[in-house]
Specification:
With about 260 residues, this protein is mainly alpha-helical. The chain is built from eight helices and no strands.
Length: about 260
């Protein structure tokens, strides 16, 4: 095919994808008043998403904090006192590294899981069967997953922030012989509640993106087992890209408008 044909096909596929996502979003808005109807399913999904993702979050967060501490010591050495390593680690983790890396790690796991599960149900016509017996698949399948991910990702981000800061503190103490008291004083030196709150505000949106894109790609699955694999891949890629894009948008909104310096 010629480049012009390929470009046209890409644009048509993109427009179709936007349409599918928009329709699912509107259907989700319509069923959202019935959010407490399937509360048991929501709790089950919260357990799967939250507790199931804890091992990944723990490992990722500890090593993120550790490498941030090492990089801070390397960059600040000879310029500012090393007590500011605590400041550097705390600011970096709470503003960006904790929320964003948690969202990317959890997003890769959760969005793939949702897309594979719903995609399998789609190609085996289980979703069509639900519609036949007057069960709304968006209300029964999508809404609990979206609510669960939106609630649990901020909780995971709090654990991530804490573990990353502790990891940075341990590395600073063991590798650079910076006492815990010195690290803690640097951490408190320039701490502002807006840093923590602003970072957590972003994770609500990230949680929605992860679950919604997994559901959208799962519902649009076609072509049997191969289609399920493609839907899973698209879910992970689209979730990660949207997280990074929305991170910029939300950072601008939160830290330049809502919490703008006076």
């Amino acid at each position: 095919m010629t480049p012009l044909v390929l470009l046209g096909k890409f644009l048509l596929d993109f427009i179709e994808e936007i349409g599918v996502v928009s329709i699912l979003f509107w259907e989700l808005v319509q069923v959202s008043p019935r959010i407490f109807k399937n509360w048991k399913s929501t709790l089950f999904q919260m357990e799967r998403i939250g507790i199931g993702s804890l091992p990944l979050v723990v490992v990722t967060s500890i090593f993120v904090g550790a490498v941030t501490s090492i990089q801070a010591a390397y960059q600040l050495h000879g310029y500012v006192p090393l007590k500011y390593i605590g400041t550097f680690v705390g600011k970096s983790v709470m503003l960006e590294l904790g929320p964003v890396l948690t969202a990317l790690v959890v997003g890769g796991r959760v969005s793939a899981s949702i897309a594979a599960e719903l995609g399998t149900m789609k190609v085996t016509e289980q979703i069509d069967a639900m519609e036949t017996i007057a069960i709304d698949p968006v209300e029964y399948l999508v809404l609990p997953r979206v609510v669960a991910a939106t609630i649990m990702l901020p909780v995971l981000a709090i654990f991530s922030d804490l573990l990353a800061i502790l990891g940075g503190m341990v590395v600073a103490n063991v590798s650079m012989h910076i006492s815990v008291a010195t690290f803690a004083s640097g951490l408190k030196l320039m701490f502002h509640y807006q840093d923590l709150v602003g970072g957590l505000m972003k994770t609500f949106v990230f949680g929605f993106i992860i679950s919604f894109m997994g559901s959208s790609n799962g519902f649009s699955t076609r072509g049997g087992a191969e289609g399920v694999g493609l839907a899973t891949m698209r879910a992970v890629v689209s979730s990660c890209l949207l997280i990074l894009i929305m991170n910029y948008v939300l950072a601008t909104l939160i830290f330049r408008i809502i919490f703008a310096p006076s």
